[in-house]
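Q: What would this complex look like in 3D?
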Amino acid sequence: MSDIKTEFYKQNAAKAIKDPVLQHALFDVQNRLGPATALAYKNLPEGLGLRLKAHEIRQFAINHLDILLETLALKIQDRGGKVYFAKDAAAATAYCLKVAQVNQVKMVVKGKSMVTEEIGLNKILEANQIEVNETDLGEYIIQLAGETPSHIIAPAIHKTRKEVAQLFTQKLGIPYCEDPPVLTQAARKALRKKFLAADMGLSGCNLACAETGHITTVSNEGNIRMSTTMPKIHMAFMGMERVVARLEDHDALFRLLSRGAAAQNMAGYVSYIGGPRTEDQLDGPDQFHLVILDNGRSRILADPEFREVLLCIRCAACLNVCPAYGKIGGHAYGYPYSGPIGAVITPLFVGINRAKDLCCGEPLCGACKMACPVDIDLPRMLLALRAKLADGDPQWGVTRASRSEKFMFQIWSVIIQNRTLYDLALKAGSIIQRIIPKKNDMIPCMPFVFKGWTKSRDIKPLARASFLTRWKNREQKP
Amino acid sequence: MDKNKPVTLFIQCLVDSLYPEVGQAMVHLFEKLNIQVDIPLEQTCCGQPAFNSGYRREAKKAAKRFIEVFESADIIVCPSGSCVDMVKHQYPGLFKDGSLWQKRAKSINAKIFELTQYIVDVLGVEDVGASFNGRVTYHDSCHLLRNLGVADQPRKLIANVRDIHLVEMKDAEKCCGFGGTFSVKYPDISSAILEEKVDNIIATGTDAVVGCDISCLMNIQGMLSRRNSPIKTLHIAQLLAG
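A: Here is my prediction, written as structure tokens for the whole assembly.
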């Protein structure tokens, strides 16, 4: 299981906002990828409608998940692959460890995989004296630095080239150099040795196909292909929702995934893997294992209100447009999944109360829905999560987050149902505000719940007479 | 449609209580367009603050109240995209499927409009005969832009104001960081988002920032004031009434 630090959202967000290096990096990634992805969708020959078609494809898959997963598993088993359905993180990591130990694995190479972050796989393997090597350049950097990913597809965006140069000098023993090609070459050289020596390769799965019985991985560095073909054992991990029915569904989804992730027409390397090496094949692993992970997904599937979040293909397009993510970065979310998708899925995984700040801590601007390649309505689900926090929900084990806020809105609801009371409340407000100091007809410091507002902003005082009072008086004039 | 048909105004609570001049500008604007206005005196709030904070039971009370006050109107016009979005897109979901209340909520759907949407799309007017001597920039409010699809209408209206010069800011369609109660519950994040918006506004070198939602403008005005910036915030009704 991954470490959960969702309770520290506010503090970590505040820290991130004060970090100028991170701010620069976040601005840069959003400025580069956000508009480029929007343009890439616009330039699709099918137009933006392809997103809606992809939504239907994914919806169909989620509605038929039982049949699709069974078909996928049978096809892989027919080819000599092993399929393991893991009910939770503990079962998935235990299975991986068992296979590694039975085969006397000493070293693994890994392609980038968010699911393995979710289950905290690296820590468990390392605790059992198995060396783990991340091979995606970004993941490799943060592994060397002992950190966690801050973006779903660009895990090291929070690190500057200077920091990477220092890190490589320290860890790889190369002379200090800030030139990215030189640094990349150093990583490549170090990793090549690992690829050749590894006993086992681990990967995620971008999308599986039931019809053909294979998983697909995409990358731009070729590292996943090496991790999955060079070692004698390949174990892939997939969330149980990451399957579609037909091969032709992959066409639309991978074109959209590549655009959503990096504004590319198609990722550089796309691999279709359906089992271990066959006898006539020179390359490929002797053993192929597919771990299909539940870890809370069945519970989401069972709730029609949140089922839609399982349509997600983890491209991170929503991160690249989210104004909140753009300021606080991935680490503030306290769990591997960050940004708008993290704000919805993390509370469902770790507990809605525990991760309440994730679903309440963004302005609901709706940019994530427009950026999503499969048109997931994340704002709708953020609102649904907030509703559970407001009044509690036994089905999800949610308790009311704030009694005082509830009480405030109860009073508010009485007032707004009666204009006379409403006018009285406005009157009371305008009397109280008389004692609050003003500057240039603005209030620079508000008390109570409004204190947060005036930390960085002034506010206009209540008008002497409301618009409706003015209108009423005008009507009464002869 | 009869272009001089009277309209019923729904005055957003923030306009009513903090920015009555925007309501007055709206009335003046409709007078200029030769359209009679009716303003129900019993109206209060659409319920969005409660709804966005998760308090659906309380929002439902506001919705019922709104429906009772406004359902007899033929056309409802409101100077806020997010309030119109609330009524149009969120009200039906607050009631049981197939219930009488849901039917009543849905009956309002087709007859509520945001101000610029009504003027441009329904009345077919793009020039209201206003003038403004200065440079302005326009901020797209999130719900107006993404949930109602209103982006060109206000720009067309602004472009036809005499003597005005519209300068587009960087990322005009990016959120200002308001988000209702979010702005007081998560002030650090809200302010950080707003800083970028205000920087982009200042970089245009304009005299005023125009918007269609007073909530965003209140947020932007708050920081412009804190930074002692001379840039004014103007609701589009104020610009068009001039």
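A: To summarize the key features: The domain at 127-241 of chain B is CATH 3.40.50 (Rossmann fold). The first strand of chain B starts at residue 7 and ends at 9.
Q: Very helpful, thank you.
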